[in-house]
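Changelog-adjacent note: as of this version, every example in the card shows the full chain rather than a window. The one below runs 275 residues end to end.
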Amino acid sequence: MRAILLLVVLSFVMESCTIYQYISSKQTVPVFSEKNQLQVELAVNPFNFYGAGIAYSFKDHVGFFCDASYYDKSYGPSEFLIGETGYFLESNILDFNGAIGYFNRTNRFAYEVFTGIGYGTNDYKNIDYRFPDGINIGPNDTLFFDSKFYKFFIQPDISLNLTDKFHVALSTRFSANNYNLLNKRGLDSIQSVNYRYGTTFYNYFQGNQSINIYAIEPCLTFSLGTDFVKFKQQFIVPAFISNKKVNCRPISMYLSVSFSLYELSQKFKKSASLK
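Full-length structure tokens:
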């Protein structure tokens, strides 16, 4: 319990006043046990993240999932008066994923292996307002970039039922991400950009229209509930397995609720037959 509380505190501290360019999106970990299980999940993060997903086991040991998420956060006022100084940061990330995989279950243990693809957009804005002479009315340094990305990933997971209502799952997403630059401003004239909060995508887009980033994202998911409804808490700690390291959120925390529609429908059918 103390370890969970520590992860919660760290996730709040690292997110509160920071804008990130790479966010580990929530991982869908359905923990299938049999055919025809249909799950719908809604997820949030306290800092402007929203997600939704669906998972379905269409065969005895084969299932798929699809999910979507959106991150939108800004920091600082977007306008300054003459004589004032400051900066404005904004990041918008839209992410779609789909995967198919194998699952198996034995008593208290279950394991799954999914292979999937993803697509999304990543828009970032960094405006530094400096008015040394008190005359300028526009930003001194402006850095924009809009990009789209494609990803291929493999995501294995293993779960343990500690009780009938509580289980823990450990998953890891190995991903290859290809970013393609769509629009840019302020990139070509800057040789080495080490702007606020560490190394940015700007360094890699210097003279490049496309870059590849490889990541490994271990994830721990706690689930509490019944066969019909489960409440989940998830922690992800990303790392990069290439020489390209970007400004990413060190710890991502997500809260979600999952509805098992198949189990709910079976319960309703059973209740109706008893009347």
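Structural remarks: The CA atoms of residues 68 and 96 lie 4 Å apart.
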